[in-house]
Structures are given as C-alpha cells and as structure tokens.
C-alpha cells in the first residue's frame, strides 16, 4: 500500500481522485480538459486544506524547469514548479537578487506568492510584491499573462490558487547584495514595546522570537543587515546582548540547520532565510498560525498577546514577530498599510491548537487582524471577507477566469471566496 500524500506538516492528507504530472503546457491543457475539479500542489508547505481537491491534484515538477533571466528588464521568469532554493543561486550568479525571502527556501515560488508568504523588513513587501507578472493557464486551457499595470493584476498574484495554474511567474530583480546577521538574546519586552521601531529599523530584516514562557523577555532578536550597515550594530540591544555562538530560534536546538550568524557577511540567499536549503528544518512536527495587523497597532497587539501568554505558551514552540511594507494585492494581508505579523509555531496537536485559536483571534480582533492564508486559523466566511475590502472584486475575477469553478474547493468556500 502506498503512503497517503500529505502536506509537509502531515496534518493534511490530500484526497484527490487522481494525481497528474504534466510534462508540457500541452499535457497540462489536456489534463485540465478532462477534469471538473483541479488544484495545483506546490511544495505542500501550507498547514490547511488550501491546496486540496477531490478532482485532479496537479504537480508541476515534471514541467520544463529552465529559469530565464532578462538582464535588460531585470526580470527572472521562474517556472511554476520551482522552489526559491532552486533559483536563488542562478539569480545571484547573474549579479542579481530578489528583495526578500521567507524563513526557508524550500517553498515553491508560485505557491508562496499565492498565499501572501513573506519575510521580514520594514520597507520590504511580502514576496508577492516582487512579482511583475503571472502566466496563468485557465481551466479552459487558455494561457494568459497578467502583468503589473493590467486591471486584473492586483487580484492575480495572491490568488490562493483559485484562478488557474500558474505556469510561470516573473520576478523583479535587484542588484545582488550581501547580508550579515546578528542575534541578540534576552531583550526586555517593555523596552521593545516602548520603541518597536528602534528594533525593526536596526536592520534590513528583523525577527523577534519568544516562547512566551517569560512574558517579560523576548528570547532572541535576529537582525539581518545589508553589508555596510552591519558595522554599526551595537553589542547590546535595549538591554539584550549579542549572542556569542550561533543559535536556533527554538531553545536548546542545534543551530546546524540555520543560516550563518555572528555578523559574518554572506550572500543574500544564505542570510535572509533562517534555515539552509541543505537541511530539512525540523521534521514537520509542528503547526503554524500567523496574524497581520497595521504596524501602528503593533505595541498594543503585542501587549494583548502578552496578556494571554499563559494560554499560548503551553502549545507554543516559538513565536516570531516580523514587519512588512504594505502592498496593493486585493487579498494581501498587508493591503493598505505597513504591517506587523505575529507568527506562532505550535506543537503538533491540532485539536488543542484549534481550540486555542479563537482566543488568539479575540485578543487580536480589535486590530482587525488578518490570518495567513497558508496557516491554521479559526475565522471564516463573512468575518474573514470583511477584512478584505476588495473581496468582491476577487470573486468577480474568479468568476470570469474560472466560470466552471474548477479551482474552487472547500477551503475557498470556507473563507467566503467561492
Ligand atoms: C517550515 C515552514 C516555514 C514557513 N515559513 C514561512 C515564512 O517564513 N513566511 C510565510 O509567510 N510563510 C511561511 N510558511 C508558509 C508557506 O510559505 C505557505 O504555506 C506557502 O503557500 C507555501 O508554498 P507551497 O508551494 O508549499 O504551497 P502549497 O501549500 O503547495 O499551496 C498553496 C496554494 O498555492 C497554490 N499553488 C501552488 N502552486 C501553484 C501553481 N503553480 N499554480 C496555481 N496555484 C498554485 C495551491 O493550489 C494552494 O492553493 C512556512 C511553512 C512551513 C511549513
């Protein structure tokens, strides 16, 4: 008996009628012609049923995988089946970089941008912000390229996989850069709440980690500075001290899988993620949730989380606070405002985590918190759609591109978008 196909965390077992692995655009078109329901599975790193279908589950792993770099336009065309880790070295070798990366390079580019996946950085938007165009095959087999500037573009990048098969994405490139990361330990929460900006502006990208076991101290603050900025980093941060050996965000875990620290400069793609491509970060024994609020509300929202720290801590492996610049995608969790995101890596006890999520959401409700599309959350339907002023525009776009509801699934119905 073959093992069931699951997501990375193994908390979702996909239930397709058939698995499809086209080797060309023509085979993809044929596969879509013969199905009434379909979904693409990217790298399977989402924690909910967003990628599930009872029809055809499509893998793009056998499709042509050549990355095309246009030096003049400063664009990389990345096929829909590739992961960030598959493309970053080639982009770097051509003298370029992408502006930001998520915590790990193992995720597919198309799947990550489809869910609003992000890294951290006050002035850097989620990964969707670096997308210049998506090449989409609709359920009817038509190939459409939707570019920045087109009417549909603001609905087409963070698409939740609901508009069609993304055959390729075009990514904006910037000049390659080097980054050095320094980790500070035991930074007092009160000092951070009094001046969050002092922390988040310290580097190009910062992450604040806590187990919430001690509600007065953030265990670690990771500061990633572009080369040149690193030399001005102090040895202490608001009372916390710079670590003298490499650390893993999880207390007591070896830092072997983590990107180099201690201020040692290196290429952007080996510093912006927390984890190295060569290692599988943990074994999937975790669940994740994340909520986004307007950055102006960040201190009050963190204080609200601190108020329920005793309920969060028993189920928490680690929490991470990151910042992002706002963007215009209709379904972006950063739509309309610079944003802070509160991430939770939970223990792998889904029932207990799901029982806690309404408490977390109530604490963050005064700040209009939007959940990460690819992680676990409790809110649904109108409550969720109300957080997105352009939800109806997205529904209209979906109806136009997918009138037979081929890419709709139970997840999309649950979140009020189908
Ligand atoms: C260990 C770990 C660390 C993570 N770190 C971060 C982080 O730092 N920041 C963050 O924001 N998130 C993070 N995530 C969440 C993750 O980035 C998202 O869940 C993201 O969607 C993963 O991409 P994927 O390809 O695995 O998506 P999947 O789960 O495979 O798919 C997600 C959605 O995209 C659609 N899709 C995928 N490929 C295509 C395609 N080619 N065409 C059309 N639709 C497609 C699917 O149908 C589905 O709707 C993390 C997850 C894990 C497991």
UniProtKB/TrEMBL annotation:
Pfam families: ALO, FAD_binding_4. Keywords: Oxidoreductase. It comes from Microbacterium terricola. SUPFAM superfamilies: FAD-binding/transporter-associated domain-like. Residues 12-176 form the FAD-binding PCMH-type domain. This is Xylitol oxidase.
